[in-house]
Design goal:
Layout lengths: L18 H25 L6 H8 L3 H7 L3 H26 L2 H21 L1 H10 L4 H22 L8 H14 L6 H14 L6
Helix pairs in contact: 1-2, 1-5, 4-5, 4-7, 5-7, 5-9, 7-8, 8-9
Length: 204
């Protein structure tokens, strides 16, 4: 009987990545797509196509759809990521900066969020109307982030004690309505500086 011996050449090997590395690679792809999509939504006059986002991120359209099966899934991921940056950003800024300066920096984060929302407004509004995104819950989270900085500022004597989180949110929305980003960055920065100065307690 003829017996065939199978041998593997020494210069050829099969490389299998550990599952952890595969998951890490997938996570990096997702983060890259999220960052690129966020940037494109913030800069675009109209919503960019899924194909344009994939091309800008340097991946195939199949990779994009594997992570975000629909445009709504991508918009939801961007929206939730931005809200999380605002809520955790308040605490992170307070860990590094005095409250008054933390508030001014947080205003810039809020402006970034507003700019991103404008680029995906049609899809976002449809998702709010359908109940896929709880607008009231997001509002509560943002007001809580502002309150966190206001409370720290009051305790430190750096921020007025007669201003509410709702007041700050309304002022910010007004600023970014008349000076939207991108396109009016310098004016927005000046108005934010004026608002920030107005939040400081009057000199005695």
């Amino acid at each position: 009987m003829l017996r065939l011996n199978r041998t593997i050449p020494h210069n050829r090997s099969v490389i299998r990545l550990p599952k952890g590395e595969l998951r890490a690679d997938a996570a990096r792809n997702r983060d890259q797509l999220l960052a690129v999509a966020t940037r494109m939504f913030a800069a675009a006059d109209s919503e960019p196509s899924m194909r344009a986002i994939a091309r800008e991120a340097g991946v195939g359209i199949a990779t994009l759809y594997r992570h975000f099966p629909t445009r709504e899934a991508l918009v939801d991921a961007i929206y939730q990521d931005q809200v999380e940056r605002l809520t955790t950003g308040a605490r992170d800024l307070l860990d590094r900066l005095p409250p008054a300066e933390a508030m001014r920096r947080w205003m810039d984060l809020f402006g970034d969020w507003i700019a991103t929302k404008n680029g995906m407004l049609d899809t976002l509004l449809a998702m709010v109307e359908s109940g896929e995104i709880a607008h009231a819950h997001t509002r509560d989270e943002l007001l809580a982030a502002i309150s966190t900085i206001l409370d720290a500022g009051r305790s430190a004597g750096e921020l007025r004690d007669d201003v509410t989180a709702e007041d700050v949110a309304a002022a910010l929305i007004g600023i970014f309505t008349v000076a939207p980003r991108p396109g009016h960055d310098a004016q927005a920065a000046r108005l934010l500086d004026i608002l920030s100065d107005g939040l400081r307690p009057p000199a005695r």
